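Q: Could you fold this chain for me?
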Amino acid sequence: MIELRGVTKRYRTTRGIKTVLNDISIDFPPGTNMGILGRNGAGKSTLMRMISGAELPTAGEVFRKASVSWLIGFSGGFHGSLTGRENLRFICRIYNADIPTVTAFVEDFSELGDYMEMPVNTYSSGMKAKLAFGLSMAIDFDYYLIDEVTAVGDSKFQKKSKEEFDRRKDHSTLLVVSHSVSTIKTHCDAAAVLEEGTLTAFDNVNDAIGYYERH
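A: Sure. Below is the predicted structure, expressed as structure tokens.
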């Protein structure tokens, strides 16, 4: 279970204090794949960073009673001067994952080939996202946090990504943020809409989409 209680996030800007998330309380129960819809700049990625623990809320608390992935699609956590393989080994040590098993999966899934031996700062954004996605899928988590990653790569890679997500749904829960209605419909059982710092949740995906499209 992941629980948010009164989560608020404010940033200081040149124009004063900006509230991105305002007193959000919600539960993400295991087994319910949840989508979060929002326009660009609505604060979706900020919310996911709160959930992952990469960023702390200004107020409120996040309770995680399960293992949670990093934000898939956000590749800023890689060390640019290290190779893809060196980053892989480093992450395996952090999560106590078996290096040979993870290496075999990532090499096959990411299709990066010789680029695994090159520094990550030589990668395109798509290559970084492929590495991040492959690593995330290679390590078992109770919850996977996903930020538009299915848009990465050609149609073959996108098909493979969807098939992997479908397999993960058998024993893990997906939290997906997107401004794309089709992405949410494809992967989620329920959804919420983030606008003006407020999160409005719906048990039915179509109800959430209807609300989103009216606002």
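A (continued): The mean pLDDT is 88.
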